[in-house]
Design a protein that fits this description.
Chain lengths: 330, 330, 330, 330
Amino acid sequence: MKYIGIIGGSGYTGSELLRILATHKEVEVVAVTSRKYEGKKVYQLHPFLKCFYELEFIKPELKYLEKCDLVFTAVPHGEAMNYVPSLVDIGIKVVDLSADYRLSKDVYEKVYGKHTGYIDAVYGLPEIYREKIKKAQLVANPGCYPTGCILSVYPLAEKELIDRVVFDCKSGITGAGVKASDFTHYPNLHEAIVPYKVTNHRHVYEMIQELKCKVYFTPQVYPGSRGILTIAHVFLKDVKEELSEKEIEEIYKKFYAEKPFVRLQESIRLSWVRGSNFCDISIKFDGERVVAISAIDNLVKGASGQAVQNMNLMLGFDEKEGLFTPPLFP
Amino acid sequence: MKYIGIIGGSGYTGSELLRILATHKEVEVVAVTSRKYEGKKVYQLHPFLKCFYELEFIKPELKYLEKCDLVFTAVPHGEAMNYVPSLVDIGIKVVDLSADYRLSKDVYEKVYGKHTGYIDAVYGLPEIYREKIKKAQLVANPGCYPTGCILSVYPLAEKELIDRVVFDCKSGITGAGVKASDFTHYPNLHEAIVPYKVTNHRHVYEMIQELKCKVYFTPQVYPGSRGILTIAHVFLKDVKEELSEKEIEEIYKKFYAEKPFVRLQESIRLSWVRGSNFCDISIKFDGERVVAISAIDNLVKGASGQAVQNMNLMLGFDEKEGLFTPPLFP
Amino acid sequence: MKYIGIIGGSGYTGSELLRILATHKEVEVVAVTSRKYEGKKVYQLHPFLKCFYELEFIKPELKYLEKCDLVFTAVPHGEAMNYVPSLVDIGIKVVDLSADYRLSKDVYEKVYGKHTGYIDAVYGLPEIYREKIKKAQLVANPGCYPTGCILSVYPLAEKELIDRVVFDCKSGITGAGVKASDFTHYPNLHEAIVPYKVTNHRHVYEMIQELKCKVYFTPQVYPGSRGILTIAHVFLKDVKEELSEKEIEEIYKKFYAEKPFVRLQESIRLSWVRGSNFCDISIKFDGERVVAISAIDNLVKGASGQAVQNMNLMLGFDEKEGLFTPPLFP
Amino acid sequence: MKYIGIIGGSGYTGSELLRILATHKEVEVVAVTSRKYEGKKVYQLHPFLKCFYELEFIKPELKYLEKCDLVFTAVPHGEAMNYVPSLVDIGIKVVDLSADYRLSKDVYEKVYGKHTGYIDAVYGLPEIYREKIKKAQLVANPGCYPTGCILSVYPLAEKELIDRVVFDCKSGITGAGVKASDFTHYPNLHEAIVPYKVTNHRHVYEMIQELKCKVYFTPQVYPGSRGILTIAHVFLKDVKEELSEKEIEEIYKKFYAEKPFVRLQESIRLSWVRGSNFCDISIKFDGERVVAISAIDNLVKGASGQAVQNMNLMLGFDEKEGLFTPPLFP
C-alpha cells in the first residue's frame, strides 16, 4: 500500500482524484490540503463522498506530506511551482495537474509569465510517453483540451502527414472550475454554446509542442457538466491523394493497439465516455479533409483520471488499476 | 404616448420590462436607472436589446424621473421603500416589483424586517383585483411563486372549499437573479432539482393572505432558465363528496371566463407559456385530492409581464396591449 | 465465481446491469438475451461497453440459461411472467426487475391485468427485508418511484406515525425506457417539468402495500437522464406535538444505522448520488408537516443496482460487492 | 389585409409560421393544411397557440387555397414540388421552406434525386437578394445551416477573399423535426454534442452555390431546442497580409449597413437571438485565420421568420413587419 497526498482538495480535479482513488486497491490517500477548509471533514465539503473518507482537510505544509510516496498538485498554474520543487527535493514523486511544467521554460514564460521554480518534467500523456513516465520523478499532467486534441490526430502527426489542423472543441462547464462566475451562471449557459478566447487560448502551445504542425484552436463551452468533444478538421500534406479512409483507420489502429484507454469507434457520443478514463475516436475522410473526432471526460482522461494513470505507471502498478470501469451511460 | 421609467434596469426583471415595452404601442421608456452601469448604453449591458434602445443608464434620482407617468421599481426588497413614497408623493404612478408593498405592515416586518416607508398599495393580481388596480396609485406586483400558486387554486379558495393545500413548485434559475453564486453555478444545477427553504420560504405569506386557508409550500429550482410549474395538492373540506371533477372544472371556467391571460388546458407544459404572460391551468380530481397544476413564465406573468398588465390597467389601456403574443414553443 | 444471465439486455436496466457487473468480483455474466439483436455483439448495441464484453446477444431460451446460478429478468411487466416460473422450477434464483411479482396476485390483476404465472416472491427492498431476501428463490425488485418514496418515510411509517403523505416525485427521462416516443422527444422535454398520470400512476400500490397509510402520488419527469428526487410531504397523526425535528432525525438514524446504502444528509442533490446505489435522505419539520426528501439514481438504486444488491444477498456475497463506489459528481 | 395559406401546419416550421403571423398586422392566415389532423382545431395540436387561432386543419387541396395571396409550403423536400407549380400557375405567390427550389435542377437531382416539378425561383436570402425577392413569384427559403453559414462570411466571399472555409455548426434539436426518433430521444442528447453527416450533409451545396469558394461543413446537434451557432474558420487568399481585424470589421459593417436583421456584436450568445429573426455576427482575426461566428434561431431566421421576411418583401410590406421584436433572453 502506497501513501498519497493531494495538494488542493477543494476543486473539481481534487474531488475527482478522491472519487477515483476511493476504489483504488494499491494506494491510500493520507493527506488532502485546503487552506480555506482546514479542519473540515472532506465529506462535509464534498457530500457525495460521504462514507468514503473520514479525512479532514489540512494546511498545504511539507511536514504533513513527508510520508507520502506520491503527491498530486491540483492547484492553479502559478501556485503549483511553490510546492513541486520542495516535494521533488525530498524524493517524493509528483503528478502536477496545473500548467506549470507542461511547456519548456521559455514558452511557459512567454505564455503564462514568470516561472519561479522550473525543473524538467515528463509530459504525462501515457499513450505517447509511457516508458518515460514510468521512470519520472515529476510528471506534468496535460491540459484537458490538449489531451483530446493531441490524441485525436497524433497518429497522423507522428507520420508528419498534417499540413494544418483546426480544432473546434466543446467542453463541459466543469472545465471552468468550482468557483461561481458570470461565465458559469446558469442562465448564461442554458441552451448555449459559448465560444471564448476563439483565437488565443493558451492550451494551443501544448498542442503545437506535441504535434509540430500548424494548429488553429477554438474552444467553446456547451451546456453539460463533463466532457470534451473535439472535432479536428485536418488538411493533409500533398501525400493525401495516396490515402483512403481505410488506410487512415489502419494508421490509427496500429498506433493505438496497445493503449487500453483509447477506443476507436464508428461514431462518437460524450455519454459513451462520461465518468471514465477512455478517449473514444472516430475518423472520416472526404478526400480532402480528415474529420477526426474524439471524446473524453474532461475531469477523468482530461485531468484526474490521466493523473492516476500516470501515478500507476510511476509507482509500478497496472496502468489500468482503479480506472478500468465502464462509462456512465446514459 | 405615456412616459415610463424603470428603477433597476440591470437585473432580469428590468431587462424583461425593456423587452416587453419595446413593442408596446402606448408608452415610451424614457429613463432606466443603474448605479453600477451609469453612462453605459442599455444595449451594451443587454446585447440582446441592440437595435431597440439607444438609452443610457442613469442614476436613480428623482429629478430624472419627474416627467414619467409611471415608474416600475425593479430593485430588491428593502430598497424599493427608498423610492416608492417620493414617487407617489409627486403624483407618479408606481408598480413595485419587490416584496415591499405586498403584505400588511405588521406581517412584512415579522417576515422581512423593519419597513421605513410603508404606504398602502393594491395587490397587483389583475385576475382578482382588476377594478382596484385601475384606480391605484401604487400597485404591489405579486411574487413569482405566489402568482402561480394563488391562480392555481383561487376559484376553490374563494368559495372556501379548501382545507389545506401543499404547493410543490419548480422554478427556473432566473428566479435567483442575475448575480452569479454557488446556487446558480452550472455544475450545481445540471440535471438537478434543487429544493431550498423547504419549509420556510417567505413567499408563503402572500399565499396565506390571499387564499385564507392552510398553506404548505416547498420551492425547488429545476434546470431551465424560465418558468414555474406549480403542483397544488388540494385537500378539500367535507363538501368534497358533492363535487365531481367536471364540477370543479366548471368553477374554474366561470371564475376565469373574462381573464384573458388564464387558459384552462387539458395538460400542462412550461414551453406552452414560455415568453408569454399566460398562466395555463389544468385540473384533476381523484375523489380525495384535487391536483391543480399551473405554469407561468416567472419573468413574465411572474414578474415583468404582470407589471405591464398592471400598468395597462392603471393608465387606462387595453389590458392586453403589448402582452398578448404567443409563447415561444418549443 | 457464479454464473449470471440477463433476460432483456437491450434496454436501460439491462445495459445498467452489464455496466455494474463488469467490475463485480464474484460473478461472470455468461448469457444476455435479446430477440431483436440476436447474434450482435453486446458492445455494438452498447458502444460504451466496448472493451468490457465480447458476448453476443442470444435468444431468450431456457437451454442457454441452465448453467446460470442467478438470472435477472429485465423485461416489461407482463413478459417476465413468461420466464420466471420455468427458471425457478429448475432451481435458478431470479431477480425480476419488472412489476410482475411485486404485488399480491389480486392487487396485481386489478392494476395490471391477468397474471398467468404467479408465484410468491420477496419484495426486494434490502433495507426492510434483508433476511428474507437472503433466503429467497425469487425476489421482486421494487419500482423506481417506490424505492425513493418508501425509503424516504419508512422509519415513520413503521412506527405508524403517518396520517397521510403526498409524494411529489421528479424522475429522469431514462425512466421512460430506451424506446423513442413523443414523451421522450427532446423538444418536448427541454427546460420542462412534465407531470403525467398525476392521480393514477400504478406505482402507488407498492407504496400502499409497504407503508400502510394514506398515500397520494404525483410523478413528473425533469430534464435529466438519471435520478429521482422525491419530496414527501408528511402529515403525522396526532402524536406530532410530541415530536421535534431532532427526534424525527433520531428515528431515521436508528432505522438506517446498519444500512450501507442509505445516507442521511443535511441537504440533497441528485448529483451526489448519480451513478451510485445510494439513497440520500434529508428531513425538515415545521411543526405540522415533515418534509422528507430522498434522492436516488433511478437506474441504480431504483433498478439495476438494487437488483445487484439483492443478488449479493441471495448468493451470500458482501451486500456491497460491486456497488460501493462513489457517485459521479458533478 | 392579405390572405395567407400554410401547407404543412403540423411541423415546427408550420407552427412557427402561425406563431409569428399571429401578431402580423397586414395578413390573416385563412388556411392551414394537415392530412393527418384534418378537422382538428389548430390549437388542439398546438396548445401554446390557444386563444390565437380558431382555424381547423384542412386537406392540402388547391380549392381551399385559391383565395390566398401567398402560400407557405412547409413540407419535406420532395413533397413541396407536388404543390408549388399549381399554386404558381394560378398566380399565387409562394415561399417554399423545403429544399426543392434552392438549387439548380441538375445539382438538385444529383443531391436529392428526381425533381418532377422544377421551375425557377429566387433564393430567399434577403440580405443578398432583396430586390429580386420583391418581384418574385416563387421564393426558395434557404436552409437553416446555409443561412447561418452564408451570412457569417458573405462580405468576405463577395470580395473573393476566401481560399477555404470550415463551417463547424451546432444546431438545436428542433432542426431534426417534430417526429420522435432515436436521434431526438432525450437520453441520447442530454449533455451531448452529437456530430452527424460530418463530411456529407446536403446543405453544403447551397453554401457552395452562394459563396463560390472551397467549403467544408460539419454539423452537430447540441442540447437545446432552438438555435444554430456557426463557427466559420476562414483561411483567406494571399491578400490576407494586407488586412487587419479592423478592416475586416469595416467590410462587414459596410455590407450589413442596411440589413435590419443582421447585428454585429462583440461576442455571441444564442440566447441573444432566440425567438427572433436576428442573425448576430462577431469577427476575430489572428493574422492567419478569420473566426467569424454567427448565431440565429433556426426556426426563425433559419426558417419561418426568414420566410415571413420574404413574404413582407413579396407583398410590398415593411420588411420588418411582424418580425422586429426583441429576442427572448435569457
